[in-house]
Amino acid sequence: MSEFAAWMQGCQARMENVLSDWLPPASIAPQRLHEAMRYAVLGGGKRVRPLLAFAAGEVAGADVERVQHAAAAVELIHAYSLVHDDMPAMDDDALRRGKPTVHVEFDEATALLVGDALQSLAFDILAAQPLARDAATQLNMVLLLAQAAGSRGMAGGQAIDLASVGKPLDLTELEFMHIHKTGALIRASVLLGAQCGTPSEATLAALDHYAKCIGLAFQVVDDVLDAEAPTATLGKTAGKDAANNKPTYVSLLGVARARELAQELRADAHAALADLGAPAARLRQLADFVVERTF
Description:
The protein has 295 residues and is an all-alpha fold. Helices cover 72% and strands 1% of the residues. The protein has helices spanning 3-22, 31-41, 48-59, 64-85, 102-105, 108-128, 135-149, 154-163, 171-195, 201-228, 231-234, 240-243, 249-253, 255-272, 281-292, and strands at 95-96, 99-100.
């Protein structure tokens, strides 16, 4: 196992424990809701957003004990979005992370409540833990996640996505959608991790540019994988975008050009980190991981 792979596994194991500790036990009322929340969050996922938070925290000299809570908040928002996205009113999918989606395993009403509760828990964490060097910075972290999750971020991007089914989008329109739908939460992961430490304004600006590049690259690769990888590899239903006539980087550019775009975005991400030196090594490795992944 490479040193980077070992670091990833360590962070992923840490997050499983942190998330498990934050999620209410399935043994307390309302038991079914708590069981479904744990089902939605634990035991799967790449934890890319927490990994980005930990890596950005290294650049900013952040205490890992602080970063893990900020990372948990972002991951809970991500998990809630997957629960809601999979529902019949949205993408109507029956498989997520290699197991039945929450509304299939439980029911639609429970799935709605799971998403609501996970979102609330994310902000509970940001408010309950001392994460930043001062109260103003921590308040800004709450604002950052709220905006990344809301109508000017992830939820807005999903609304654009739903409204775009069957419609041709140009590259600018597609990027605008994914800057919000996928990129906003990835950007929040990086900036929240950094703000657990003491980054300079120049460092935050570099990290912000890096995160925007990686957010788009992540979506480009997702589109390629949806077109080419089998369901067993993805852990979710492959080919859904084409079947649902959704605009994607593959439908607009073709697979070969989409792959080239992902490489260009990776190069831009690396360039953004040029002045940050050795502490940004993990972020560079994560940029490579995001673009080269096969799942």
